Amino acid sequence: MIEMMKFTKRLTIGLVISLVVWGELADAGQNGRIEIRIWDQATVVTPEIRLDQIASISGVPEEVAALKPLLIVSLLNDDQTVTLRAWEIAGRLSEAGFDANRIDVRGSARCIVSYVPEKDGVDTAGHAERSMTSGASVVRRGPASLEAKIREMIERNLTNKGLPVGSKVEIGFSATVQELLALTEPSYRFEIETQQRTTNWIGLVGLKIKVYRNDDLLQTVPVLAQVQVKARIAIAARTINSKARLTSQDLEMTWRAMTNLSGKFVTDVTDLADQQARRMIPPGTILTAELFEPLPLVKRGQLVTVLYNRSGLEIKMVGKVMQNGYRDEMVQVRNEQSKEVFRAKVVGAGQVLVENNPTAELFKGAALADGSKR
């Protein structure tokens, strides 16, 4: 009898604990919160570190499936170790479009990640070939499918945002929306709307899909797309000093995982003709147009060649510039013989062009382009 009472008591306690745990899980599903528990350490075999490689994730199943392949950081060197801190991971989640108020980041305050690449299956970038959307669907359907329409819209918006030419774009979807993505036109008609927070188009992109048949709205479904981009862009191969002009030896082309397209990326040294560095640029920095400024083609006090075309003849002389000038900018120039000051347009390094009808004194001492006196 006593043993039966003990068994009944243990059974009751176990039932209560089960109900409590079940209730907590139910509450988590109802309030839509997501819990991310960061591990102390992890080892990866690909340079792209995903969230599911450094943390366990629980919450709404569809959002968990979309969170798993989220790119946190891209490593550069073999056998590299990096420390990811909790606040950095939380910031990456917010950057990807997640509501920080619904996410609980717990566990370790930092995760030490070791990158040990596999030796086979190496791609042209020197990294082990892996799908950038592991854990999500990367199956491509026909051009009439809803999935194809979504891909087309995302890639178009990436291009409008300044996607570098030749970039690699991977778009993955949660396994829970595969039947929806397989629907095709003309049997169905689709309206694709973006969530209000969708501005970057890299990371987690929230969409709202309306499906119609015979003009009747069948359903409205939220869809999360995981978008990852790798681009071949220029980085600083060495330190570029402030006010220095960029040369081909200063840059190195490399593949990088992009987290945003907020800058105009440099893909060739000719993109920065007549430009100089605004500040000192450390090695490894991704080069964007915002890091550079126009280079003065003429400087105050410099002797320059003054050009003027008249009746098919090119007349030129030497003048002194009174101010710094950039390409196509109007500057003041002085004829050193007549001392007359006039305005001319900067057309090249050490060259200005007179566009208005000049006075005779202006070209005192000038010569024709062939060197003869006028």
**How much β-strand is present in the residues?**
25-35%
Helical fraction equals 10-25%
Query: How many helices does DSSP assign?
Result: 5
Average pLDDT figure? 76
Give the class from helix and strand content and strand pairing: alpha+beta
Order of helices and strands: HEEEEHEEHEEHEHEEEEEEEEEEEE
Q: Quickly give the CATH architecture of the largest domain.
A: Sandwich
Write a compact overview of the structure shown.
The protein is an alpha+beta fold.
Describe this protein's structure:
The chain is α+β, with helices and mostly antiparallel strands and 374 residues long. The chain folds into 5 domains: 1-27; 32-130, eubacterium ventriosum atcc fold, CATH 2.60.480; 146-226, no CATH class; 231-294, Type Iii Antifreeze Protein Isoform Hplc 12, CATH 3.90.1210; 303-368, SH3 type barrels, CATH 2.30.30.760. The chain contains 5 helices and 21 strands. It has helices at 2-31, 61-67, 86-95, 146-160, 178-181, and strands spanning 34-38, 41-44, 48-50, 55-58, 71-74, 81-85, 103-107, 110-115, 168-173, 189-194, 203-213, 216-236, 251-258, 275-277, 292-294, 303-310, 313-321, 330-335, 341-348, 351-353, 367-368. The strands form 6 sheets. Strands 9, 10, 11, 12 and 13 form a 5-stranded antiparallel beta sheet that branches. The chain has a 5-stranded mixed β-barrel with strand order 16-17-18-19-20. Strand 17 (313-321) and strand 18 (330-335) form a beta hairpin. The termini are far apart.
